[in-house]
Design brief:
The structure holds 2 protein chains of 2 kinds. By secondary structure, chain A is of the alpha/beta class. Helix content of chain A is 36%, strand content 27%. Chain A has 11 helices and 13 strands. The radius of gyration of chain A is 24 Å and the shape is elongated. Classes of the chains: A alpha/beta, B mainly alpha.
Amino acid sequence: MISLTHVTKLYGSVIGVNDVTVELGAGAHGLLGPNGAGKTTLLGLVTGQLRPTMGRVHVCGERPFANPRVLQRIGFCPAADLTERRATPREWVRYLVRLSGYAPHAASARAAAALDRVGLGEAMDRPLATLSKGMRQRAKLAGAMAHDPDLLVLDEPFDGLDPMARHDLVGLVRHWAVSTESASGSTRTLLVASHLLHEVEALHAGLAVILGGRLVASGTAREIRDMVDAMPAELRVRCDQPRRLAEAVCGTTGTESLRFEGDDVLVVATRQPRELAERITRVAVDDRLAIRELVAGDRSLEGIFSRLVRLHRGVAS
Amino acid sequence: MTTAQVSATAEPSPRLPPCGSWLAVAGFQMRRLLSRQRLLLAALGVVFPAAVMLAVRRTAADGLDRDLAVTMLYALVPEAVCMLGLLVTMCPAVADELERGTWVHVSVRPGGRRALLLGTYLTAVIWTGAVAILAILLALLVARVPQPLPLFGMLSALVVVSCLGRAALFALPAVILPKRALVASVAVALVVEYLAGFIPAVINQATVSLRLRSLLVEWMRWRQQLPVEMQLLVDPQPAVVQLGAVAVLTIAMLAVAVAILEYRQFPPSDEI
């Protein structure tokens, strides 16, 4: 569905996206990265708002920029808040559906159904200015989904939502992704950009991690975790004799590097964190070391993401 | 019947002619214009020429001369009111969308960019044209000019020509410099319409102001009475040529503006 080949996007001398190559098929995909990583630029390239400076972008087999055939099949919910004031959600979504080529009556029906689906049925005739940010977010989502696209692209879609609303919308978007084929008969694809890992994880989506405009990892959450497991993990030990502890563990299999932080902290990078932890415990008992703290690297997805960021910046070993 | 059921039973035929989306934009933009501020501005545009005509009529002891009244009305309405009205309605065609955060929604729709420009163009022409025609009506009533009906028809026709041509002219700065569109449009109005338009050379052939003046002179049958130096400021061709020239200019400028907008890229500001 989406194919990027050595895609680079420059804004003058500023790099938005740097040599990204990725293939995304049908199903749900998450695009992870901190603010300013290049997520929105990547989505801009996929949704035909931006042209790559170098490389090729194909969506549904064609270039999306200024291509109505491709744009007809895309639904996009941008991150920026909707500051349209006087229009109601019904008017706004109907307007967008009409721009997708629907006749006025059909557009009205689709707008109402989409707003019902996102839980704005009661508020669809109130001006957007009087709605909360979360409700405007739902209106944006309805606008993206109402014309039944094959590819739904969401940029920070759950931003500003309370936990209940977030839960509801995650369910709604997940259901959209796994439900039956779209009206055109194609299998649906969902691409969600977020800087919050749990949001993407909740969608059961495949992951692509982008940092500094580069794609640094892609695969399922499990594959990324395995990839990170293959990299050295860090154990941070606070004790009374860190130098004595360093002597004892430096010969341990899998140890990659050692460093001291202050007078009482030893940080060990290892490919076998479990074995190292056992070794440290034995050394502590045998040599009567007072271990005050033993912290392993965070193994949650959040921790993996944090480690990828650090690896990319050359901080981690 | 719930809305979901309505949707299920009303399956659309999505392939409508492109003008369907232009009309959708025009309708949406028209609703935006129906705000208190915009209506107040429009009312000012309707009343101002009449107020000027009233003031002049009161100072003239024997009433207003017909030719003078027509010249004043021409300067006030097809020139001033139309120009100001179009500056307010056409210039922010893209800037407003960027500011409201709606550009990104519209630009990812098939033909959305083109529809945005042409729909806004339609709105600008209809809105400004309506204001200007009402202004002519009121001003003619106040001025008490003899035989006002033919004058109303002629000046209304000039208003339509002015709106069609100049809205297309202002579409260019709106797409080239969206965030400075108003300043750029004022500069274009001054340089193109009022400087180049008054230069008696080939360059003034590409201005709407030359065509409007020529139509006025033609329809008022003033050509024989014009002093030689004034004849340099109008085109001797018949009205149909003037109208054709405005049509060609309008189509050319709109085509260029649409082509530019189709390929414009607005980078996400939070990433640069």
